[in-house]
């Protein structure tokens, strides 16, 4: 890690604003860097740009000027969502300029160590579980990254006594260079975000960057049940700490059909863990391992596992109405996440699904579609999802415009004992800016529709 003074009078170009770009620009400006921000959105529609301008940051909005890179920049820091085939990004790399995401900046300016969590699924739940365990045990954790708090802003304020628990996407990790967490957690790896990465190889390579700079003094907590993840772990210099759900093990965290174990000793009976589902048991095992490695007491770990009920938009219980239960799993943006949600409910599911059509298969849902009583499909994939459900033997299939209409249809279909589950298996971007907005639309529609039916 570098000192914050390393950026004094350094000339930095920031591509893209949103939360990460705005925070990185403000942090670098306070560190004395010469910052220029370039964002495609017109200035009059860009309050973040106006605020940065008032601070004295150079701002160029609404266009990407030719020759922008001729201004002598030493570093380009881009919003994670900007793809690498962007012409400015391509030109910067061609010129040999470092192209980072703000996670790299956060690492270089932080006085505090990092714990990094990545994987195709389970990142947010694992990150939150781990944070709560560390917090309960007075380990002074800070939470950052893809979970919603920009890492650079957290790192700027962190002290050496803190630990920054950081959820990391493949987009963020691809733009790192020296990033080295004291503990890296690799949950799992499945095909995802190929529209951004272009190939599974690029996606997996980006995920693996979480541990590539680690030494034997660092720890890698990894999913030993996935052959590809286990093979990657073996290649790393880190000290390896596996977790497995395939029976009791004397190393790392493990689980059988009765207990969660730590180093072969029972930690907690599975029936006492609040979160349901095999995927959440993976999350619990990984978080418990990292917390115990950081010095947390078993009592703190156990208490959190007994009481933690989940995070927003991840199999989030909303309400029970006339014997029907409603769950928001809007964060399920791929088929694997939806499979995990379906696995948690034995039968009687009214599934609300659909969204952006990336062309990916729904096949891994097939064994669990017997639990689906009815499908209400929406968005770009509505027709394709509906055809798949009929192939799987789901006789009651409806296609509607959006989540609001899907809730109305589901409330009409659901009977006492049924579960209405929003678990889209698709990204939200065809109709909603992000999965949070989609999830909130579901929550609001559930409250509206159930209240309306109650009045009838």
TrEMBL record:
Residues reported in the UniProt entry to bind ATP: 119-125
One GO molecular-function entry: UDP-N-acetylmuramoylalanine-D-glutamate ligase activity
GO biological process entries: cell division; cell wall organization; peptidoglycan biosynthetic process; regulation of cell shape
Keyword Repeat carried by entry: no
Gene Ontology cellular-component annotations: cytoplasm
Uppermost EC category: ligase
Catalysed reactions, as listed in the record: UDP-N-acetyl-alpha-D-muramoyl-L-alanine + D-glutamate + ATP = UDP-N-acetyl-alpha-D-muramoyl-L-alanyl-D-glutamate + ADP + phosphate + H(+)
Alphabetically ordered keywords of this record: ATP-binding, Cell cycle, Cell division, Cell shape, Cell wall biogenesis/degradation, Cytoplasm, Ligase, Nucleotide-binding, Peptidoglycan synthesis
EC number of the protein: 6.3.2.9
InterPro entries in the record: Mur-like_cat_sf, Mur_ligase_C, Mur_ligase_C_dom_sf, Mur_ligase_cen, MurD
Domain Mur ligase central: 117-291
Cross-referenced Pfam families: Mur_ligase_C, Mur_ligase_M, MurD-like_N
Chief location category: cytoplasm
Pathway: Cell wall biogenesis; peptidoglycan biosynthesis
Mur ligase C-terminal domain span: 313-426
Localization annotation: Cytoplasm
Domain of life of the source: Bacteria
Protein family according to the UniProt entry: Belongs to the MurCDEF family.
Record function comment: Cell wall formation. Catalyzes the addition of glutamate to the nucleotide precursor UDP-N-acetylmuramoyl-L-alanine (UMA).
Full protein name: UDP-N-acetylmuramoylalanine--D-glutamate ligase
Species name: Planococcus lenghuensis
């Amino acid at each position: 890690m570098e000192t914050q003074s390393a950026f004094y009078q350094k000339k930095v170009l920031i591509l893209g604003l949103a939360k990460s770009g705005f925070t990185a620009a403000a942090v670098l400006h306070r560190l004395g860097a010469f910052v220029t921000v370039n964002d495609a959105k017109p200035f009059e529609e860009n309050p973040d740009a106006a605020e940065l301008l008032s601070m004295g940051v150079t701002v160029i909005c609404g266009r990407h000027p030719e020759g922008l890179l001729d201004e002598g920049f030493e570093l380009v820091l881009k919003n994670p969502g900007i793809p690498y085939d962007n012409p400015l990004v391509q030109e910067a790399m061609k010129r040999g300029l470092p192209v980072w995401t703000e996670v790299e900046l956060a690492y270089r300016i932080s006085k505090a160590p990092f714990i990094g969590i990545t994987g195709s699924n389970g990142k947010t739940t694992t990150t939150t579980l781990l944070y709560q365990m560390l917090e309960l045990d007075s380990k002074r954790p800070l939470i950052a990254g893809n979970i919603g708090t920009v890492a650079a802003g957290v790192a700027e304020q962190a002290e050496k006594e803190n630990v920054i628990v950081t959820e990391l996407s493949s987009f963020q990790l691809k733009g790192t260079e020296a990033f080295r967490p004291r503990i890296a957690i690799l949950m799992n790896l499945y095909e995802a975000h190929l529209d951004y990465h272009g190939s599974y190889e690029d996606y997996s390579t980006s995920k693996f960057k979480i541990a590539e700079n680690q030494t034997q003094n660092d720890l890698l907590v990894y999913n030993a049940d996935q052959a590809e993840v286990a093979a990657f772990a073996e290649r790393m210099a880190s000290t390896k700490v596996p977790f497995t759900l395939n029976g009791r093990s004397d190393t790392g965290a493990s689980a059988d059909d009765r207990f969660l174990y730590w180093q072969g000793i029972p930690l907690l009976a599975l029936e006492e863990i609040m979160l349901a589902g095999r995927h959440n048991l993976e999350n619990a095992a990984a978080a418990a391992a990292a917390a115990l490695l950081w010095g947390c007491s078993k009592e703190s770990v156990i208490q959190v596992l007994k009481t933690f009920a989940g995070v927003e938009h991840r199999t989030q219980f909303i309400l029970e109405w006339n014997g029907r239960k409603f769950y928001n799993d809007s964060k399920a943006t791929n088929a694997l996440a939806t499979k995990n949600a379906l696995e948690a409910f034995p039968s009687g599911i009214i599934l609300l699904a659909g969204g952006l059509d990336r062309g990916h298969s729904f096949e891994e849902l097939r064994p669990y579609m017997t639990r689906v009583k009815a499908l209400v499909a929406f968005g770009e994939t509505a027709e394709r999802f509906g055809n798949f459900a009929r192939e799987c033997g789901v006789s009651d299939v409806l296609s509607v415009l959006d989540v609001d209409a899907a809730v109305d249809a589901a409330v009409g279909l659901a009977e006492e004992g049924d579960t209405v589950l929003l678990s889209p298996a698709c990204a939200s971007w065809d109709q909603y800016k992000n999965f949070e907005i989609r999830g909130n639309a579901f929550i609001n529609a559930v409250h509206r529709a159930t209240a309306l039916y109650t009045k009838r």
